Amino acid sequence: YTSEIGIIIGPNKDIPAPDVNTNAQVMAWMMDTYSMNEGATATGVVTGKPITLGGSLGRNEATGRGVFVVACEAARDLGVPLEGARVLVQGFGNVGGIAAKLFQEAGAKVIAVQDHTGSVRNDKGLDVPALRQHVQTHGGVAGFPGGEDLANDDFWTLEAEFLVPAALEGQLTEENAPGVRARIVVEGANGPTTPQADDILRDKGIQLVPDVLANAGGVAVSYFEWVQDFSSFFWTEDEINQRLERIMRAAYSSISGVAQEHGVSLRTAAFIVACSRILEARQLRGLYP
């Protein structure tokens, strides 16, 4: 597959990165195949590589960390304290699992988690490290001894401060959105909320942080990895996390400001910010012919 698409990817073209059902090993194979066809090692053709092959520290946790950072910013906007906040997480991989870990470390309680095997609940707070170990051993959250089983449909109706859909697209729909009782929805996945559900959540007064902002942490650190590969100068994990958090906070602040100025949702504000930047750049350029 990599050999066939080699003409449209490259360090200065399109740069793949891992997502569902791919990982650092797959990125290594893609880099090697592309490099063989080019006749030279091209570490910058993909990101999310193993650390020993030019990968970046912090890349694996970056998306989940970015979700947590913007969730904190949204909570501060709404006056929601993190200490004791109840969190629902759908998906418990690199995004949901890392976000849940950071929420717990900040004093929040992850009261329910759902994945492809089922849902588990503990109103006093699930032991996130133990649950992550259980998932590694058993392949999913089902049967976790530190929580009770929960019907998948009931997961969405639990009362909480944060709901983090971090699995697949199209999970929040017009069928289950009316039952959502979380104050803030932070989209860890790509497109987890349908347009109809988006309208329902807005009408209910639920703040939704859109995917284009909330899960941008992975892309940001992929950019860091690309920069490090070109310069052959690698940063510490603390430096990467600090740069990531600074970028995510600035992005949230920009979008939140536009949302308040125009009285629109954060999703609409994100589109306004993006389109404004593109139009400004186009006006300044002198493309010919």
- Would you count the extended β strands for me? 7
**N-to-C terminal Cα separation, in Å?**
35 Å
Which word captures the global form? globular
Instruction: Report strand order across the widest sheet.
Output: 4-3-2-1-5-6-7
SSE string:
HHEHEEHEHEEHEHHHH
Helix content: 40-55%
Rg result: 20 Å
Short description:
The chain is an alpha/beta fold and 289 residues long. It has ten helices and seven strands.
Any descriptors?
alpha/beta, 289 residues, 12% strand
How is the secondary structure organized here?
Blueprint: H1 24-38, H2 59-78, E1 86-90, H3 96-105, E2 109-115, E3 118-121, H4 128-138, E4 148-150, H5 152-155, E5 159-165, E6 181-186, H6 195-203, E7 207-209, H7 211-214, H8 217-231, H9 237-262, H10 266-284
Parallel strand pairs: 1-2, 1-5, 5-6, 6-7
Antiparallel strand pairs: 2-3, 3-4
